[in-house]
Amino acid sequence: MLDIALKEQLKTIFAALESDFIFDIRVPARHESREELIEMMEEVAACSERLSCHVQESDRLEFDILKNGEPSGIGFRGIPNGHEFTSLLLAVLNLDGKGKNFPDETVAQRIKALKGPVALTTYVSLTCTNCPDVVQALNLMSVLNPSVSHQMVDGALYQEEVDALKIQGVPSVFADGKLLHVGRGELGELLAKLEERYGAELSLSDTAEKRYDVIIAGGGPAGVSAAIYSARKGLKVAMVAERIGGQVKETVGIENLISVPETTGKELADNLRTHLSHYPVDLLEHRRIESVETVEADKLIVTSVGERLLAPALIIATGAGWRRLNVSGEAEYIGRGVAFCPHCDGPFYKGKHVAVIGGGNSGVEAAIDLAGICSKVTLFEFMGELKADRVLQEKLATLPNAEVFVNVQTTEVVGNGDKLTALRVKDRRTDEERLVELDGVFVQIGLSPNSAAFRDVVETNRMGEIVTDSHCRTHVPGIYAAGDVSTVPYKQIIISMGEGAKAALSAFDDRIRGVI
């Protein structure tokens, strides 16, 4: 099941284990996946003398990880292959105190202070690229806080359970049986939701201001580029980011990053982190910037965990996120019929009728992908014609179960309280409204700049983009913006990297000229 090369890699990964681990496997005698699970786990266990398997019969297919004979709080209901294989490996390493994904001490203390007990369950699809980040973040919480337990569930093996819980998007996280989170999520975001629901016994008394030469807001291509260029100038640099990689992590395939013929969003994000680690940058991850103000010549940044950071230069590179329709019912039915990622959530709509809203490249690509598994795909475009590349439009036109309507405005997401049941749309030429009954909708109308925290300080345009000059300078001396959050045209990875470098060089130039 595991090839020779992978087994050799696992032997290297597990060579430094200091604790003994048992995969406590429980499987039904006649389950169709019984032998597959046992075989995979035994092959993994064979890669280290510190690993072993214990198999017993049960009414459902699952296993827990025991550390030195004691429950670890981490379990898997299903076979953790595909994208979740890394989650299994990291769970073992993290339980042994190893791995590069541990948060800094401030975030670790917040996790340890979370009030329990908390029983978390995450329903995933093994083809979902966003699910592992959530699974690994919650496993890490279980490692750091003994009162938190977490189990990954492969929704495909427990379809009746998925239907009963009305799950229509992954990852779906339940805390003690109640829905906590749906969709992509980072450790900081998940932790904040758990703190809000369960409370925490923590008082962050250290509010002393920390001084830097440059503060970078955002950890995507623009932010990492700005941090590296600033650090190479010998400056003291801090980066505040929810995650390294930013929106890039949601991109499945990347083929236009010059000199890199083909990569994935995850690989690029990992490479950004590795490159950043080569420089003395203070990485404050799993945080948001709550407020910004100017204090004489300095910029005072307050983070979501209460840290106060000062610097004469601030480079805003917070990127952009999925743009919402902002119509009635949309927020209510996210994860229950409203989705944004066709790769992750598409399988939940197999054989069903779905809509795609948006006629750009992303929308048409989503419609093409979904047409392969859905009974019918209806694409709605606000403008009078599709904006996607001609080759994509031609491909869509060949699909018998896909239809396109232009000059259409979505006015309402309609549901029955449990899930989405229809869309209300309006013909922009005639103002005629109609109700379109369907099972799901994928919103693909572009990105919205993550500039809310800065709008009281810098100028933004009607789209929310931060207005900059040709050198990434805003109208406030010492504040710069780069990448998708700014007015720079063409939102591309390679352009964001260049803009991040430009912003860093502009900040350094202003510094040596005495402007800041």
TrEMBL record:
Question: What does the note under cofactor report?
Answer: Binds 1 FAD per subunit.
Tell me which residues bind FAD: 213-228, 474-484
PANTHER family attached to this UniProt entry: THIOREDOXIN REDUCTASE 1-RELATED-RELATED
Q: What's the protein name?
A: Alkyl hydroperoxide reductase subunit F
- What does the subunit section of this Swiss-Prot or TrEMBL entry state? Homodimer.
Q: Which organism is it from?
A: Bacteroides pyogenes
| Cofactor(s) this protein requires | FAD
Q: Which residues bind NAD(+)?
A: 353-367
- As recorded in Swiss-Prot or TrEMBL, the protein's gene is named ahpF
Q: Which cysteines are joined by disulfide bonds?
A: C341-C344
Q: Does the keyword NAD apply?
A: yes
PROSITE patterns on file: GLUTAREDOXIN_2, PYRIDINE_REDOX_2
Keywords for this entry?
Disulfide bond, FAD, Flavoprotein, NAD, NADP, Oxidoreductase, Redox-active center
One Gene Ontology term from the biological process aspect of the record: response to reactive oxygen species
Q: Which residues form a coiled coil?
A: none
Give the matching CDD domains: AhpF_NTD_C, AhpF_NTD_N
Q: What would be an example GO MF term here?
A: flavin adenine dinucleotide binding
**InterPro entries, alphabetically?**
AhpF_NTD_C (IPR044141), AhpF_NTD_N (IPR044142), Alkyl_hydroperoxide_Rdtase_suF (IPR012081), FAD/NAD-bd_sf (IPR036188), FAD/NAD-binding_dom (IPR023753), Ferredoxin-NADP_redctase_2 (IPR050097), Pyr_nucl-diS_OxRdtase_2_AS (IPR008255), Thioredoxin-like_fold (IPR012336)
The record's Gene Ontology cellular component field reads:
cytosol; protein-containing complex
Q: Which family does it belong to?
A: Belongs to the class-II pyridine nucleotide-disulfide oxidoreductase family.
The segment(s) forming the Thioredoxin-like fold domain are 124-189
The FAD/NAD(P)-binding domain, residue ranges: 212-498
